[in-house]
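Morning, I've got a small favour to ask if you have a moment. I've been staring at a protein lately and its backbone has me curious. You're getting the sequence in one-letter code plus the fold written as tokens. I've dropped the whole record in just underneath, so have a look:
=====
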Amino acid sequence: MMTRFFFALTLVLMTFIVVPHALAQSTFDGDQPGYVPKEDEEQLDPKWQKTVVFYRTTEAPGTIIVNTNERFLYVVQGGGRALRYGIGVGRDGFQWRGLVKVTRKQEWPDWTPPPEMIQRQPYLPRFMAGGPGNPLGARALYLGNTVYRIHGTNQPQTIGTEVSSGCFRLTNPDVTDLYDRVPVGTKVIVQQQPNI
């Protein structure tokens, strides 16, 4: 009888110790393979919702400009305007800047986390087929010869945060809209302005 009591107590204590740690890792990294968001979770705070804004730039219409500090992605339109999307960006140590092009596009992409990501997050799967529970979401735009992408997410609550390993994430409805607007070869400017 006493053995069963200690066994049950051990199980309860393990739940309080192990489960929160695993959930904290999952929440911090923003990757929760297999989770399928509900439709209402895709509804963002108005600040992060897709909108047309006034935008000054000398870049040609169709150019994508990612501003990591603002956590917005802009698609330049004519007449001093841009279409603005709220995004999730790389966390500290994983942000970058540069000039690349969209080299490939994929609907419901498969996900193979790179070895560096597996080393940091060993609980991740080594491969996951595309679909609603895939962390890359509904669409992916591959950036140059890098490992980075503009992609959807199965964690829409991470939009507006610094959570990724360097990719830029949008809600699935937003990345689908973006995917339909931009062709392979689109110029992408990634800006990372210092905080002053």
Summary: The first helix runs from residue 2 to 29. Residues 5-29 have pLDDT under 50 and may be disordered. The chain has three helices and eleven strands. The two ends are 64 Å apart (CA to CA).
